[in-house]
């Protein structure tokens, strides 16, 4: 059995650029699909797949996914960057899809079988003020959702329009005002919903480290399920100080691309949930090893699952959720009708849980004809131009 072609497919059914990799074989009708979505640099990932990985992999056996992952990882000599990792991930997920199709089994069966029937999810509730956030939280609760991430005014509580500063255009926000508003928000929401609904919040690295510690301590009485991304990946030493200061559970990892960024956090038990973006770390092959490392140290999984992950990527998250004993929770957006039409077999969201079908591989396909009717657009990314009131550029 040999790989005959590796190609990227770009589509945007919900206006978000998604990148899917299709690995074709010399066996009639046998192909695999994987998610390589790096929506901020979509065309670069596509070029890496088409111009480098396709010629590298043609003629090789698709069943040797472990060897091929290492080959793709080191072939460029320089490694562990998000563009190449996403390209590798698309191929890696497609190879696992092929394995499942050969065996006639879902990928979770290849990973040891199910530990649970479905994955508990959390949904995202935003609003202009605490009352509006609470309204959205209650709508989710009434629909059976068990956990809700609460934000107010977007990440950092943006102030001013994008581009309203002539010298340093950007997305301005006031970190001190934001930190104070978060405590007020959770005072309001927790008082209304009681103790049973699981609540989460994402700092999104918008605060200086000492202010992130202060916020984590202030939120401790509200018993968050977790506080997400309080610090940037290069601020590992500050996680030790958060741990010493309070017992608020910490989730981290969506920006990780290199194993050294998460090794210390896990080995020293400085986080409670790993939030890695599976395509950014290189696919399912490294993710299953990361999950095993986390299990050893009592860290649970909470894979990154926003709108800029394709339904194939969400299926990969879900299959790991079902097969890993140390699963914690899964982020998931709503799946629009357009997404479901382009990606038949998209996982099913019911109440507070996400369900996989029992199809072989990921159980998700791609209608390329329909996908082509939703072309991507390449524009300058604005929300990542985050600035403090004096114009200082900060992590987005």
Overview in brief:
The chain has helices at 42-57, 65-75, 82-103, 107-110, 130-142, 175-193, 209-218, 236-245, 260-267, 278-281, 284-296, 311-323, 337-342, 368-371, and strands at 3-11, 18-25, 31-35, 119-125, 147-150, 171-172, 198-202, 226-228, 250-252, 273-274, 300-301, 330-331, 348-350, 353-355, 386-387.
Here the CATH topology of the largest domain equals TIM Barrel
CATH class of the largest domain: Alpha Beta
Mean pLDDT: 97
- Tally of helical segments: 14
Total number of distinct structural domains: 2
Unreliable stretches (pLDDT < 50, length at least 5) are none
CATH architecture label of the largest domain? Alpha-Beta Barrel
Morphology call: globular
The secondary-structure class comes to alpha/beta
Kindly report the name of the CATH homologous superfamily of the largest domain: Enolase-like C-terminal domain
The rounded Rg comes to 21 Å
Strand segment tally: 15
List SSEs in N-to-C order. Answer: EEEHHHHEHEEHEHEHEHEHHEHEHEEHE
Distance between the termini: 45 Å
Largest sheet: 10 strands, mixed
Helix content: 25-40%
Percent of residues in β-strands = 15-25%
Structure description:
Strands 4, 5, 7, 8, 9, 10, 11, 12, 13 and 14 form a ten-stranded mixed sheet that branches. The chain has a three-stranded antiparallel sheet with strand order 1-2-3. Helix 5 (130-142) links the parallel strand 4 (119-125) and strand 5. The chain has helices at residues 42-57, 65-75, 82-103, 107-110, 130-142, 175-193, 209-218, 236-245, 260-267, 278-281, 284-296, 311-323, 337-342, 368-371, and strands spanning 3-11, 18-25, 31-35, 119-125, 147-150, 171-172, 198-202, 226-228, 250-252, 273-274, 300-301, 330-331, 348-350, 353-355, 386-387. The radius of gyration is 21 Å and the shape is globular. It is α/β, with parallel strands linked by helices. 47% of the residues are buried. The chain has two domains: 3-105, Enolase-like, N-terminal domain (Enolase-like, domain 1, 2-Layer Sandwich); 109-360, Alpha-Beta Barrel (TIM Barrel), CATH 3.20.20.
